[in-house]
Amino acid sequence: MLYVDELHGFYKSRVMIFLWVGLPALAILFRFIQANATSSTISFTVISALLVSSLAGTLSAVMISVSIINEKNRHVYELFLIRPIKRRDIIIAKFLSVYTCVAIASLLAVLAGVVADLLMGSNLSMSVLNNTGQSLEISLSMIAVACSAGTLIGVGSPSVLVGAILVIYGANQISVIPLIPTLLNLQYEAAFTIGIAIFVAVILLSAAVLLFDKQQF
Amino acid sequence: MTVRRALVSLRGVSKTYGPFRALDNVSFDINEGETFGYIGPNGAGKTTTMKILVGLISDFQGEVTIDGYRLPKQKDEVHKLLGYLPQNVAFQEWRTVDQALKTFGKLSGLSDSEVEARIPEILELMDLSDVRYKKISKLSGGMTQKVGLAQALVHKPKLLVLDEPLGGLDPLSRHQFKQLVLKLGREGATILFSSHILSDVQDVADRIGILNFGKIKQIGSLNELKQRFSASRVIEVLLSFASDQWQKLGAVEGIETAEQPSPGRVLLTLQSEIAADEAVDAIVKATVKLGIRVRGITLLSPSLDEIYFNYVRESKNH
Q1: Which residues does chain B have within 8 Å of residue A8's beta carbon, measured at their own beta carbons?
Q2: How far is residue A138's CA from residue A114's CA, in Å, rounded to a whole number?
Q3: Residue A42: what pLDDT?
């Protein structure tokens, strides 16, 4: 119930409106760059995933941490905590709602890229579809880690300024962890990427829940 | 006389923040159906007490039970019973009044159909029907406070905890809010109402607890507090004409101090051990002996302000 409630609040927030429009626009732009570039040692799939998810991840981490810090400082949670619900539900609902919104925005961005390809007369070969899938998987994994790091920072930070600095210099860096299997060209790259993302996100979220549980309002 | 059951019970409750003792051995009961006014200056420990009662503070010493459930152990049971309006009520900025009431109603255990039926009732009660679909962040302070009370009442709680509910309200909103609290009290709600504005508490409370420096200084109905205070405190002597002789009244047995706030009006503070009637007798004899012509002698019935300031001043001196 809290998840649906939070989702209701996030999907029409200003940052989300920017992401709903901005991410697909960026994806289309990257497709154009990809179409014009011919020599590169790094796959464009990786570059485009990195750029889109880095932006979406950073914004979602900022959004979630600022939202938690603001609500904490304004004592919004008091009205929730005096009701028969678990504290962890508040934090998990917040994470899931932001992640859902940003994940859908990323999905739309990738779809926009594909549509741009089709409109430009490209053939949707198996390789293009594979690259698209890989790009999406990396994006979603990085966003999951960024959101969970943002949640932890939000719970732990006393002020929006501290939170924003920690997100930019911390969450953003941590969010590239799921990219390691791709950069190392590991076998079962997809499974490793998703596995690492889930592992890191669960650790960070657990820390956030424990910290939130200890806090006094 | 009906003996009412204690719904809330605090026994020897203490709470420290580092070296600062916010509550020191606080004990009191709130009976079922009673409106209990909790007064004290800023920093006296009112909010700490309330946060302990609503389960927001779990690490404290002493015993707290609500309807037989012990805090913090049986917090979930207690949370089903209470409605809480914090000192600075705040909602997420995107929430409308309707969304807030739906969410908090459901989180308090109401079903979808119960919430749907309850929202129009509560909006009507709080005079909020016109702003049902408006964002709370766009409402005035008074309206936001009303939404705060609405969310506290939406699930018809057994105990209503209101922490400084009139703070920041204009006089009309204060009046409306107090009328509402009185109405809820008449309907049988048990209410804990804190304020540092004494007249607010005086208007709505059946009993009053005075808190200062984390300690309960007095508990009782307004009449009981007045009796306790006036029995040993101030006698007003109105002189027929101003006379320097008034200072000699300070030397009468049982009188602690004498002061003349305005010409012809003398206030005599009694020593705590002397009975008021004995003191009046001694004052009458002294005025006759001193040749002071007196128009009247009155045992002053103090206002809540005087009682309150007396206890607050007393504890500052100790």
Answers
A1: 94, 99
A2: 17
A3: 45
